[in-house]
Design a protein that fits this description.
By secondary structure, the chain is mainly β. It is built from no helices and 15 strands. A hairpin with a 5-residue loop joins strand 14 and strand 15.
Length: about 170
């Protein structure tokens, strides 16, 4: 059988994708290393796995072709899922727009936001028109992904000063 290539992933859920050597043979997945692992359907070549936390897990794919046995091993390294935390939304009183700043954690560096690599784990957007939705697609170095979405309205500010609440009569001589 072929248990697939070793891979890295984020979060506690992933899929094992194996293949058998002989059509009609039976296969079974089992855990070689790692604890608190749930293989949804160990008898299927492609099956979802849920693990308890970060670490390196090894899985054995065994194939039985009428008593002729074969096996292959795949290793999966699991990292924390990508998470984000918006740290600020700042309005620009001159332009009437806003910027969004957020931090990214989990996964593996480098982080890429809307196709552009960033330095470190903090991203500040360019100016966004007030009331316009934002969407930031985030991918990390091992192709895990998440998104930050929202909308913000900046309060209208003016430099016009204050006015009296009572009616004013203004005469101009000319």
């Amino acid at each position: 059988p072929n248990a697939g290539v070793d891979f890295q992933g984020c979060g506690n859920t992933f899929t094992l994708n194996g293949s058998n050597s002989v059509t009609g043979s039976t296969t079974t997945w089992s855990v070689l290393s790692g604890s608190n692992v749930d293989i949804d359907f160990p008898e299927l070549l492609n099956t979802q796995v849920i693990v308890d936390g970060n670490g390196i897990y090894q899985f054995l794919l065994e194939e039985n072709n009428q008593g002729c046995m074969g096996e292959d091993i795949v290793e999966v390294e699991v990292f924390d899922a990508l998470t984000t935390q918006i740290t600020s939304v700042d309005c620009d009183p001159l332009d009437g727009g806003y910027t969004v700043t957020f931090t990214i954690s989990g996964g593996q560096l480098p982080y890429i936001v809307n196709g552009d690599p960033i330095v470190g784990n903090t991203y500040t957007s360019s100016l966004i028109t007030s009331g316009t939705p934002y969407n930031f697609d985030i991918v990390d170095g091992i192709n895990c992904s998440t998104a930050v979405q929202g909308i913000f309205n900046c309060d209208c500010t003016t430099q016009g000063g204050t006015m009296s609440a009572t009616e004013q009569i203004i005469c101009a001589e000319g």
